[in-house]
Amino acid sequence: MLTSIILLWLCVWFLIFQFKCRRPKNFPPGPAALPLLGNLLHLGFDNPLNDFERLRKTYGDVYSFFLGPRPVIMLNGTKAIKEALVTKASDFAGRPQDLFVNDTTEGTGVILADYGDVWRNHRRFALTTLRNFGLGKNSMEERIHGELQHTITEMEKNNGKILSPQHMFHNISSNIICQVLFGKRYDYGDNFIKEIVRCFTENSKLANGPWAMLYDSIPAVRKLPLPFKRAFDNVKTVQRLANGLLNELKQMRVPGEPQDFVDCYLDEIDKRRDEVSVFTEEQLRGNALDLHFAGTDTTSNTLLTGFLYLMSYSHVQERCQQEIDQVLEGKNVVTFEDRHNMPYMQAVIHESQRVANTVPLSVFHETSKDTELMGYFIPKGTMIIPNLGTALNEDGQWKFPHEFNPENFLNDKGEFFKPDAFLPFSAGPRMCLGEGLARMELFLIMTTLLRKFDFIWPEEDGKPDFTPVYGVTLTPKPYRMKVQLRATQ
Ligand code: HEM
């Protein structure tokens, strides 16, 4: 009997030792972890951001925890994030390849591509194409204004009424990027846009959610029919819709005369037909969907946050409108150039981005080689999470880190300035490639709408709730707004 107990005890210890989560030597500190589960139980399932903040208080700006058996390093605060992503740029520019999100996207696209030629070529191609299709030229501004007209018409129909802006802002952002990618826009009731936006927004919540964490931590559960299967179904739906659209565009295209991103990509495939190329039709679908997703759920959630705060801080809304009226007097439409004469509006947009913290944990990175950070050793292949929110509300970096206040972006003379800790688009070689488009959209959309309408919080809805819903993107809880044509219009 005693021998059996000792043997059992030895077996248990052997197993614990085998599956123990071990930190490499001189690795960033962090909480002790359970075998197999890692620190899964340390993290709140609905929103782990507060738990990450608690761990930062205990272990410092660079700490580690375990996602299942895998060690992960969390970067907090401007200094650590910039030292990794900018100073040691190429060391930290990889992406993990074996997570839930990789499996859903089947290894295509630019966002999750590892640091290497496939990523480099597709990033360069996307940036060039975005530039050729109008960033820096007037055509992108015209597209944005064209799309805005549909929204304005909707709002005018609802003048004096209360509406839910959720779908509206997703539709604007989605249609703007659709025009760049596919050369077409969709009516807001169209099934294509409704389905795509539904799948994008659902997957953005599933991808960082508790079931994805379980999927990443315990590979054994991956084949089980658990709620993460829904994300795979959504990807299938989106791929089916994209395939139909791509086939249609292929029929219509004139080689050598590209009208949109898809045409340019197909020309690129033709150009490289005789070589081993990273440009393939499968990658075309993956890249188009990446840009569509990245360009929809981010800009729209930032707009939703911006308008939520503008309704709650009506004196800020009024001051924006005064500046807009003054600068645009006699002008038909606002241009992106006008931002240089609108320091307050610029400050409000940036402050909306700061408090929105739209992509709180960035996209996860991975070290591409053995490296060092702030005195710690970090082996190749370590997953890195830049916690961007910890820079966006970092004490010492902002005049008012924990409140909505456009003064955060205004100097003593009332001029607009951008503090170093403003990192909503991340930093370094993997930094958001849609930053230029997003900044143009935010400025033109917010300025045009504020010029035309007052946005009023409906009294009967009680107090606004600023607590966001967690996911790859942070989303304001659904709210309603009253839109009222301004007296000057
Ligand atoms: C307010 C709007 C936006 C915010 C806050 C935002 C934020 C981000 C962040 C934090 C990342 C991760 C960077 C990293 O890994 O370090 C990212 C990546 C990316 N974003 Fe955005 N984004 C926005 C709009 C857009 C738009 C409009 C597009 C489409 C044109 C876009 C396309 C991308 C792509 C393709 C990547 C992956 C880049 C790479 O891996 O090289 N984003 N974005």
TrEMBL record:
Amino acids binding heme: 432
Bilayer-crossing regions: none
Record localization: Membrane
GO molecular function: heme binding; iron ion binding; oxidoreductase activity, acting on paired donors, with incorporation or reduction of molecular oxygen, reduced flavin or flavoprotein as one donor, and incorporation of one atom of oxygen
The protein's required cofactors: heme
InterPro entries linked to this entry: Cyt_P450, Cyt_P450_CS, Cyt_P450_E_grp-I, Cyt_P450_sf, Cytochrome_P450_fam2
Main subcellular location: membrane
GO cellular component, one term: membrane
SUPFAM superfamilies named among the record's database cross-references: Cytochrome P450
Keywords: Heme, Iron, Membrane, Metal-binding, Monooxygenase, Oxidoreductase, Signal
GO biological process, any: organic acid metabolic process
Signal peptide start-end: 1-21
Family: Belongs to the cytochrome P450 family.
Protein name: Cytochrome P450
Organism expressing this protein natively: Cynoglossus semilaevis
